[in-house]
Amino acid sequence: MREVYLTIDDSPSPFSKQLGEFLKERDIPALFFCRGDTLEKYEQGAVALAEMDFVLGNHAYSHTRFSEMSYEDCIAEIEKTEKMIESVYKKTEKSQIVKTLRFPHMDRGAGGWIVDYDALPEEHREYVTKLFFDGVRITLDRPSPENVEKKHKIQEYLKREGYVQPFKRVTFPWFKDTEMNEAADCLYTFSTSDWMLLDRHRGKWKYQSMDDLKAKMENDKAFQSQTSRHIVLTHDKPEPEVFPVVSELIDYMLETGVKFVSV
Asked: Which residue in 49, 85, 170, 219 has the most C-beta neighbors within 10 A?
């Protein structure tokens, strides 16, 4: 049986409680990465998630790509959102068990150069590049030296502040033997690409239907593997079409032999 960590970006939304209840009915744990700007609008959704024992993580404040901001502004976004997450937990009887962060758009400060592709072993380079290029909206332009330096400085900051990847037994060689395993922020091993079915994106990207997204799962040899745990990326957004897409994909994973595990 495949074991999966379910991670959900862009929370909270008007549908967060509905998504949380859907997951609780199926006994599925999840890590929800929260944006500060949506926490201001939909804080009760995040409170409901925390009260249902889901873990809340940091997704920065404004969902701006970190390559487009100064180092100081990047840190300010992280810290502002972290204080908001702490405030959510204070409104519940739950404790924040771990500090986690996922960068907006997976932009860790160097744009689409999420990891140093050139430094990857040649046998892993093509797969890891496709993993990110198919999963999030990026281009593969080489970063400036300044952005590479910023990326490293942010990693140093996160480690000082106690941010971690809380995932265990992720043993794919392209993950555990590379920069991905060393990161203080939360990466992933499979993206559902659910965002491509948003009304504002539908038809503009590679995957254009639910059948396409299911086929993506079926055809990904790594995702079909039982030798490693998986870190799966999905979304929670204010658009009403998101919940039906995400819930169907989660049910499909259950039907095809996935066991969801806690961080």
From this structure: 49
